[in-house]
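Morning, I've got a small favour to ask if you have a moment. It would help a lot if you went through both lines with me. Thanks so much in advance, here it is.

***
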Amino acid sequence: MHTSSLQQNILAELDHELATTRKLLALVPYEHADYQPHPKSMKLGKLAAHIVNLLAFKQLFVQHPSRDFLDPNGPKPGPSPTSSEELLARFEEYSASLRAALQESDDEKLTENFRLHRGEQTLMAFPKATAIRIMGLNHSIHHRGQLSVYLRLLDIPIPAMYGPSADEPAW
C-alpha cells in the first residue's frame, strides 16, 4: 500500500484548485471592475485581486511561524491589477512561488504551528498544513464561489468546476 505525504496531498489539492481558479479568473471582465452586486459586496476587480493575493498569504503560512497584522513591515498586497493580463500574470507568479515553497517544505515543517495575530490577540493558531487548508484553500474557494456568482450576474458563462455547470454540462 502506498501512502502519500501531507505535503503531497496539499500539493495535489492546490493544483486542482489552482486550475479551477485560473479558469474563473480568466473570465473577469475588467471593463466591469467596479461592478458590485450589493453595496456591501466587494467590487469585482478587488475580489479577483484578493483571490490572487491569497496565494501569497498561503505562502506565508508555509515559510513563517506567524504573521502580525499590526506589523508595519509585514507583507502587503501589491497594487490592484488593472487588466486581465496583469491579474493572470500575478496569478501565475504567485502560484509558482507557492508551489515552490510547498515543494521546499516537508511533512515535519507543515506540522509546526502558525499563528495569525493582531498584536497580542490571536486570530488563528493551527499547524501550518491546517492553516493552509482553512485560511488558504477554503478561504480561496469561498471567494471563488463569490466570483462565480458575480460572473453569472454579468451573464458570463461559468465553467465546470467540481462537476458540470449550466454552461458547461459535459466535461
The chain has a mean pLDDT of 92.
